Amino acid sequence: MQSVKTLFKAALGAGAFLRPAVVAPDASAGPAAPSAYVPPVLLPIRSIGPRERGRILTHLLELSPRDRYLRFGYAASDEQVHRYVEGLDFERDELFGIHNRRLDLIAMAHLAFAPADQHSDCAEFGVSVSAHARGRGYGARLFERAVVTARNEGVGMLFIHALSENTAMLKIARKAGATVERSGSESEAHLVLPKATFDSRMNEIALDHYAEVDYQLKARAKQFWSFLSGVQEVRSGVQSAREQSGR
User: In the prediction, which pLDDT does 81 show?
Assistant: First the structure.
């Protein structure tokens, strides 16, 4: 297994994805406005599979009705969210997630590739971010990560279907250079992707390895703290029993 230091060196050449998202300060707020949040240079974004289905469901169910409306384009009920998660095709599509230290899924993206009987060079992007994790550029970073994979899979055109009022998503698309066309309450953005290169493929490998190492470290840390908590509970119980027997 490659060392974290080796993966870190490899990831340094992973292009724009590894640069902090630039968040322009609000000029109307005056010179005393607080600095915008800048994500870490290396943001671990992990490819997630069917074993994460439960976390995906939890993440989506915790979205507010308004956020579900913006994510799916309609007011998705709990039942509809359940059906969406159960219908995810992990063999065909790619899903990416950002986890916190407790391994909760706080942001995720769905890169849906066209079915076999349709244009194979097209894909669609969708994203959701938990309310408490907003303002950190996670949506933009997930989009950049999806572009890397889509490009390496031979996708020439990446689409985003969103409600016209979903300004955050459309801003991400425009900033990436996508063409946005509005049709009433809905908008469609499409981004032309360059062909894959050796560099783009190596970038994806480095990003995958870095994210996996980060996830495993978080998993081990969580196990350690759970074990330590259990030990402390046992010690507390023993001490309490001794105190009661000494009375």
Answer: 97
DSSP string of 27-74, one letter each residue: GGG-TTPPPPP---SS---EEE-GGGHHHHHHHHHTS-HHHHHHHHSS
Token code pair at residue 193? 């992707």
Residue 177 has pLDDT above 70, yes or no: yes
Across the strands, what pairs with 190?
159, 179
Helix, strand or coil for residue 9?
helix
Cα dihedral angle (27, 30, 34, 37), rounded to 10 degrees? 0
Residues 109 and 95: their CA atoms lie apart, in Å, by 6
> How many Cβ atoms from other residues are within 10 Å of residue 170's Cβ?
20
Task: List pLDDT tens digits, range 54-66.
Answer: 999 999 999 999 9
pLDDT at 28 over 60: no
